[in-house]
Amino acid sequence: SQQGEEDPQALSIQEGENATMNCSYKTSINNLQWYRQNSGRGLVHLILIRSNEREKHSGRLRVTLDTSKKSSSLLITASRAADTASYFCAKDSGGYQKVTFGIGTKLQVIP
Amino acid sequence: EAQVTQNPRYLITVTGKKLTVTCSQNMNHEYMSWYRQDPGLGLRQIYYSMNVEVTDKGDVPEGYKVSRKEKRNFPLILESPSPNQTSLYFCATRGMGNYGYTFGSGTRLTVV
C-alpha cells in the first residue's frame, strides 16, 4: 500500500497566495522528504525533515512534521507561476529501506 | 555536477522485444533504485540495489530484471516487454543516512 498520501490531489491558486499541501503516513519514519516534479520530468528533492524535527525552512518553503498525527505539511509562501508542478512527499524508514512516495499534489499557480 | 543519466529518454517498442534502459550516476553512491510512475498510482519501486552485486525486489518487480556489476551503473532490463509496462521510468540514487534522492530525467516507454 502507498505511504505518504498527499492532500489535496489538486490545488489551484493565484500568484502571490500561499499554497499548503498535506501528507499523511501510516508507520514510523526516520525522515520525511518533499519533492517537486515538473510535467514529465525527474523529481527534484526540495527538503528533508527528520523525525525529531518539527519544522524546517528553505527559502519560501516551510515544512512541518507532527509524528503524533503521522502527518506533514508543505507551505509555499508567495507562490509564483514557476511553482506550478506536482509535489510529492516520501517516507523514509531509515537504513537502506526504500523511500515510499505518495501520489502527489498537482499545484497550479495562475499568473 | 552530481548527475543521474538515463537513456533513452523516449522508447517505443513492440511486445516481446527485449530492451534495456541504462542508468549511470557520478556520485559514488552505493544505493540505487528504479521506479515507475503511472497516473493515479504515484511512484512505485521496481528494484533497488544496496551495492555492487546486491539487488532486491521492490513493490512491482514482475517482468523486470536488474544488474549491478559496477557501482555507477544500474540497468533495467525488460526481457519480454508487455503493454502493461508502458510507463514513465525513473532511476534514482542517494547517499547513506538522511539524504534525499537524486533522480534521472526519466524514460518514457511505450510498448505496443
Notes on the structure:
The complex is a heterodimer of chains A (111) and B (112). Chain A has 111 residues and is mostly beta strands. In chain A, 0% of the residues lie in helices and 56% in strands. Chain A is built from no helices and 11 strands. In chain A, strands 2, 4, 5, 9, 10 and 11 form a 6-stranded mixed beta sheet that branches. In chain A, strands 1-3-8-7-6 form a 5-stranded antiparallel beta sheet, with no helix packed on it. Chain A is globular, with a radius of gyration of 13 Å. The N and C termini of chain A lie far apart (37 Å). In chain B, the strands form 2 sheets. In chain B, strands 2, 4, 5, 6, 9, 10 and 11 form a 7-stranded mixed beta sheet that branches. In chain B, strands 1-3-8-7 form a 4-stranded antiparallel beta sheet, with no helix packed on it. By secondary structure, chain B is mainly β. Chain B has strands at 4-7, 10-13, 19-25, 31-38, 42-51, 54-57, 65-66, 76-78, 87-94, 102-103, 107-111. In chain B, strand 5 and strand 6 (54-57) form a beta hairpin. Chain B is globular, with a radius of gyration of 13 Å. Chain A binds chain B through residues 2, 30-31, 33, 35, 40-45, 48, 50, 88, 90, 92, 96, 98-104, and chain B through 4, 31, 33, 35, 40-45, 48, 50, 58, 88, 90, 92, 94, 96, 98-106, 108.
The helix-strand sequence of chain A is: EEEEEEEEEEE
Number of helical segments with 4 or more residues of chain B: 0
Q: Roughly how many Å is the radius of gyration of chain A?
A: 13 Å
Structural class, from helix and strand content of chain A? mainly beta
**Euclidean distance between termini CA atoms of chain B:** 36 Å
Q: Please compute the radius of gyration of chain B using only Cα atoms.
A: 13 Å
Average pLDDT for all residues of chain B: 95
Quaternary form: heterodimer
- Unreliable spans of chain A are none
**Helix and strand succession of chain B?**
EEEEEEEEEEE
Q: Work out the number of β strands of chain B.
A: 11
Q: Which two chains touch over the largest interface?
A: A-B, 24 and 28 residues
Helix content of chain A: under 10%
